[in-house]
Design a protein that fits this description.
OB fold (Dihydrolipoamide Acetyltransferase, E2P), inorganic pyrophosphatase (n-terminal core), Diaminopimelate Epimerase, Chain A, domain 1, 18 helices, about 20% strand, globular
């Protein structure tokens, strides 16, 4: 079935006998059985989904934990000066905070630094390092969520006698052994895949350190796992297997009321879902780095004074509102350019766009059009690009290869997201290179999407109340399921923030229900929904908040069938 957004929708085919067998084996609903089969959930994953109180009994240990722990332990023992150098996103803030909190719990001091996205750029550079060392001569720097490819900077630090630990999950261009430097990154090994974000690696490293070297009486496993969980969600790590357990345990086992620092920016009165993290907490924390206030979130996490916590929280909320307004204007501007493109990959350049929101817009384009998206703007004398991908098209590797061919000045990332800088004369070369790569790996690519089944509103409401939470956490590689609902009329609509639509829909039985269409204003789908008044078939998702009463239930419209 073709849709107004240009996607092709199909019913996911699964033999009836397999659905019924799985349904009987686990005493679950027909619909949940089909979804488990569609996603190829293992027996362990199904068991963990149905038994949310599962214990995280699986451990992860990197061979570099031993040497890194030895270095950190010796520096702590000798009261050496330690700096934690992070990144300006949730993963960077969380991993920085965990290390800082752990070292502080040992009654030892350390410093942290988060670079400014606009002034400093991503990761360490010589200018930042020299500025930091002009203020204090550090003996150990721990880089988190960055520096896997900062060989020039790492060699310089080594030369001046600084010990280095890197804990990162980004693609490595070319691994080099550097004296007194330990790099904890699963991608050091050839053809290895990193399913973990940096915070999860830090969590396991601290756990190893706490057991084998320095036992902290204040070590709070549940709190540290909570931060690994929110970073896993916000950094779009695959929410399968061990990551599912990390997120479920992290969100369920930590009493968020005990962490006062988040009280003003997230609702403590209800159980947190993956959507609360991905669409509320994450954007608030990330907005600071996007708009030139990269230090605010780490200051919030480490602050002890209630008045200061409230002040920082208010600033973050204000910045997020400002970010939403900038995003709305920029999205509408760039989305018009998408309509003029006819490539399998979205490749958009506009001179005057706030570079902090490029990644959000790229994510929105992937969501809307089902294509890898590269969004660029001019930054001083170079072009900055932020990109998001579809499953199977590894952006980190693509940027790595483009870097080796001298197409890019800098570049990096992981499978689903990345960023790069390039000279303006290489813009068309990069566009051609990416399109050729995509056509090579996806020769007959069409934005195919599968819905689980055709449903009515009552059955979806029942599924929302009983089964949807069993699929949590929802996100990368475990998306909120799609359903087809037929013969609905749009009664009225309202535009929200000049970006989204809120629509009231009525089915053939005169039942009305609320729906949201995100990033729809200015799109073909949005224009159609605002103007069509006959019966229409829709592709929808259930808004996956916890359903306690019928009024909690609403849908997210993803598409309309031609």
């Amino acid at each position: 079935m073709k849709s107004y957004s240009g996607k092709s929708w199909k019913l996911y085919p699964i033999p009836e006998r397999l659905i019924q067998k799985k349904q009987q084996d686990y005493n679950i609903s027909y619909l949940l059985s089909k979804i488990f089969l569609q996603r190829e959930f293992s027996n362990d994953e199904i068991h963990n989904s149905l038994n949310k109180k599962n214990i995280l009994n699986k451990n992860y240990q990197d061979e570099d934990f031993i040497n890194a722990s030895y270095i950190l332990n010796e520096c702590i023992k000798q009261n050496k000066k330690i700096l934690i150098f992070g990144d300006y996103d949730v993963d960077g803030y969380s991993s920085t905070y965990l290390l800082y909190d752990y070292i502080q719990s040992l009654n030892k001091k350390c410093d942290f630094y988060i670079p400014d996205r606009i002034k400093d750029g991503y990761g360490p550079n010589m200018k930042i390092i020299k500025k930091l060392f002009s203020k204090k001569k550090y003996n150990l720097i721990i880089f988190v969520d960055c520096a896997s490819n900062s060989f020039k900077e790492l060699k310089y630090l080594n030369k001046i006698g600084v010990k280095i630990i890197v804990i990162d999950h980004h693609q490595i261009h070319e691994y080099n052994n550097i004296k007194n430097t330990i790099i904890i990154n699963p991608l050091k090994k050839y053809n290895n895949n990193s399913i973990f974000c940096a915070t999860t690696l830090v969590y396991y490293f601290i756990k190893y350190m706490n057991i084998n070297f320095r036992r902290s009486p204040k070590f709070n496993d549940n709190k540290y796992l909570f931060f690994a969980a929110i970073a896993t969600i916000c950094d779009q790590m695959p929410l399968r297997n061990l990551n599912r357990m990390i997120v479920n345990n992290g969100l369920n086992n930590f009493n968020i009321n005990n962490f006062f620092n988040f009280k003003k920016i997230i609702n403590f009165k209800k159980k947190l879902s993956s959507s609360d993290i991905a669409f509320n907490l994450g954007p608030i924390l990330n907005s600071a780095g996007r708009l030139g206030h990269s230090d605010l979130p780490i200051r919030l996490l480490t602050e002890a004074n209630t008045s200061n916590i409230n002040s920082i929280s208010e600033k973050l909320i204000d910045l997020n509102m400002k970010r939403k307004k900038i995003q709305s204007v920029s999205f509408n501007l760039l989305n018009k350019k998408v309509h003029d493109e006819d490539n399998k990959v979205i490749f958009i350049y506009e001179k005057n766009v706030n570079e902090g929101i490029l990644g959000i817009i790229a994510s929105s384009f992937v969501e809307l059009y089902g294509k890898p998206s590269f969004v660029m703007t001019k930054s001083n004398d170079v072009i900055k690009c932020s990109s998001r991908s579809v499953y199977g098209f590894n952006i980190g590797k693509i940027f790595n290869e483009a870097l080796s061919k001298n197409i890019l000045i800098t570049g990096g990332g992981h499978s689903m997201a990345g960023g790069c800088t390039l000279n303006i004369n290489k813009l068309n070369i990069l566009k051609k290179y990416i399109n050729n790569k995509f056509q090579k790996y996806f020769k007959n690519f069409e934005a195919k999407n599968y819905y689980v089944s055709e449903q009515n509103i009552d059955s979806l409401r029942t599924f929302a109340k009983v089964d949807l939470q069993k699929l949590e956490p929802l996100g990368n590689n475990n998306t909120n399921p799609f359903f087809l609902i037929r013969k609905n009329k749009i009664i009225k609509f309202k535009i929200i923030n000049n970006l989204h639509l809120q629509i009231l829909i009525q089915n053939n039985f005169k039942k009305k229900y609320l729906c949201f269409v995100f990033n729809a204003v200015g799109t073909k789908l949005g224009d159609f929904l605002m103007n069509y008044r006959k019966n229409i078939d829709l592709i929808v998702q259930i808004n996956n908040k916890i359903i306690q009463k019928n009024s909690d239930f609403n849908l997210i419209v993803k598409d309309a069938i031609l």
